[in-house]
Design brief:
Strand order of the largest sheet: 1-3-5
Mean pLDDT: 90
CATH architecture of the domain at 75-145: Ribosomal Protein L15, Chain: K, domain 2
Largest sheet: 3 strands, parallel
Low-confidence stretches: none
Order of helices and strands: HEEHEEEHE
Radius of gyration: 33 Å
Structural class: alpha/beta
Distance between the termini: 72 Å
Strand content: 5-15%
CATH topology of the domain at 75-145: Ribosomal Protein L15, Chain: K, domain 2
Number of helices: 3
Length: 146
């Protein structure tokens, strides 16, 4: 076995299609583009969404609504998810990120009331639903809005 005997595996390489090299090649004359027409011309590509001059679909359909520029998107945590922390601890943004409850903070963290809470915590977040706030206080914890 020497470097000069090495060859690619059978079927792993393929010769490129040489178009426009005479009629005998099978790809001569029109170079596999058919006869005349827009697609046979140079630069004859059709843009995405072009429908032959007919009013395109994206212009026929109505546009509705808008996205307000002041809209805030909060990362959501439910009260039931807070049970993983020790009782009496103070829970904030660093703890949420560290334990994987939140991947990215976006515009802040909002605590919702889904689930039950049995431990006492001091929870720090940007927003709380009123039901979540009541459940945390009823369990003996406290709430801090950042």
């Amino acid at each position: 076995m020497d470097l000069n005997n090495l060859s690619p595996v059978e079927g792993s390489t393929k010769n490129r299609k040489r178009i426009g090299r005479g009629v005998g090649s099978g790809h001569g004359k029109t170079s596999t583009k058919g006869h005349k027409g827009q697609k046979a011309r140079s630069g004859g590509s059709i843009k995405a969404g072009f429908e032959g001059g007919q009013m395109p679909m994206q212009r026929r359909l109505p546009k509705r609504g808008f996205t307000p520029l002041t809209r805030k998107v909060y990362s959501i945590i439910n009260i039931g998810q807070l049970e993983i922390f020790e009782s009496g601890s103070s829970i904030g943004l660093e703890e949420f990120l560290k334990c994987g409850l939140v991947r990215d903070l976006r515009d802040g963290v909002k605590i919702l009331s889904d689930g039950e809470i049995t431990k006492t915590f001091t929870v720090k977040a940007h927003k709380f639903s009123s039901a979540a706030q009541q459940k945390i206080i009823a369990a003996g914890g406290s709430v801090e809005v950042i």
